[in-house]
């Protein structure tokens, strides 16, 4: 373990050295054993490896009588989270599309069930936010923090929800989670909830993309509508009752790419879950936009 690089409600993240390579070591609080177990279990799912999902190296548990240390070792990405990256960097159209496309590719892989004996279940993340997406050296993203993920196996039609008490991040919760109308027995509910959160993340990205020499300062979604640490009540009022969503700066309408991105995010954060875009649909749209910009991924 070399130095601490982050911390959250589950524990801490350290940068470590393993076989001369830098790795990230997530150390969970003893109370978060469910999160550790869940994340480990999901990472070890067959066919889980993907360029845009954080690379899993190992999981370990060290017990010394009364004290248990739970470790999760993954690839290390020095740029840190998308949240950190957007705070300190502005984007051009190319880097915006690369970040967005790689993030949705990771989400699309999670959401997709691969059938067969060596298949993978469909997985919904349930805590998507810019702090849970990491930015790689090459300017693409990978999705991290799978401690809340839900699995679905179509053979058994069973929705496997983790037993941990931790629920997602209030600011990124869709209306159906805030007003408790989400049907937990219907797996697609969780998939559609992820898409709402993705829409908010896209908004965070687009604000940091320069057009016509203008760019907005980094802000979290709903920064102008709720307090810094919003309650369920704060969020429900804005998202469910007033049906408000993050606003678009005027400049977006005069740039074709940013205008399309705005349309895309609006279709992800629709109030009605059934009318939200799927990850695959967003991935195809972004692929087309990349093609028009002549960008090679």
From TrEMBL:
Residues 1-290 form the Protein kinase domain. It holds the Pfam family PK_Tyr_Ser-Thr. The keyword Transferase applies. Gene3D superfamilies: Phosphorylase Kinase, domain 1 (3.30.200.20), Transferase(Phosphotransferase) domain 1 (1.10.510.10). Keywords: ATP-binding, Kinase, Magnesium, Manganese, Membrane, Metal-binding, Nucleotide-binding, Receptor, Serine/threonine-protein kinase, Signal, Transferase, Transmembrane, Transmembrane helix. It is a single-pass type I membrane protein. SUPFAM superfamilies: Protein kinase-like (PK-like). ATP binds at residue 26. InterPro entries: Kinase-like_dom_sf, Prot_kinase_dom, Protein_kinase_ATP_BS, Ser-Thr/Tyr_kinase_cat_dom, Ser/Thr_kinase_AS, TGFB_receptor. One of its GO terms (biological process) is cellular response to growth factor stimulus. Its EC number is 2.7.11.30. It comes from the Eukaryota. This is receptor protein serine/threonine kinase. GO terms for cellular component: plasma membrane; receptor complex. Its cofactor is Mg(2+); Mn(2+). GO terms for molecular function: ATP binding; metal ion binding; transmembrane receptor protein serine/threonine kinase activity. PANTHER family: BONE MORPHOGENETIC PROTEIN RECEPTOR TYPE-1B, TRANSFORMING GROWTH FACTOR-BETA RECEPTOR TYPE I AND II. It is found in: Membrane. Belongs to the protein kinase superfamily. TKL Ser/Thr protein kinase family. TGFB receptor subfamily.
């Amino acid at each position: 373990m070399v130095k601490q690089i982050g911390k959250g409600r589950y524990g801490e993240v350290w940068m470590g050295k393993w076989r001369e390579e830098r790795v990230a070591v997530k150390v969970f609080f003893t109370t978060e054993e469910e999160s550790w177990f869940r994340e480990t279990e999901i990472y070890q799912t067959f066919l889980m490896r993907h360029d845009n999902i954080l690379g899993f190296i190992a999981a370990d548990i060290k017990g010394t009588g009364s004290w248990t240390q739970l470790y999760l070792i993954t690839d290390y990405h020095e740029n840190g989270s998308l949240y950190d990256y957007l705070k300190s960097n502005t984007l051009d159209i190319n880097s915006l599309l690369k970040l967005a496309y790689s993030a949705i590719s990771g989400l699309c892989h999670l959401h997709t069930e691969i059938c067969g004996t060596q298949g993978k279940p469909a997985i919904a993340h349930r805590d998507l936010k810019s702090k849970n997406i990491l930015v790689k050296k090459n300017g693409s993203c990978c999705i991290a923090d799978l401690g809340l993920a839900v699995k679905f196996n179509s053979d058994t039609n069973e929705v496997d929800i983790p037993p941990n008490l931790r629920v997602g991040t209030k600011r990124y919760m869709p209306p159906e989670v805030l007003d408790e109308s989400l049907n937990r027995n219907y797996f697609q509910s969780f998939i559609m909830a992820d898409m709402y959160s993705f829409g908010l993340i896209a908004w965070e990205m687009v604000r940091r993309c320069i057009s016509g020499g203008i760019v907005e300062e980094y802000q979290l979604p709903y920064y102008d509508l709720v307090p810094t640490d919003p309650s369920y009540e704060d969020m429900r009022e804005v998202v469910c009752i007033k049906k408000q969503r993050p606003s678009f700066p005027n400049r977006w309408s005069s740039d074709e790419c940013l205008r399309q991105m705005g349309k895309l995010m609006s279709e992800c954060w629709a109030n009605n879950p059934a009318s939200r875009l799927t990850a695959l649909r967003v991935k195809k749209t972004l692929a087309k936009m990349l093609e028009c910009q002549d960008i090679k991924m």
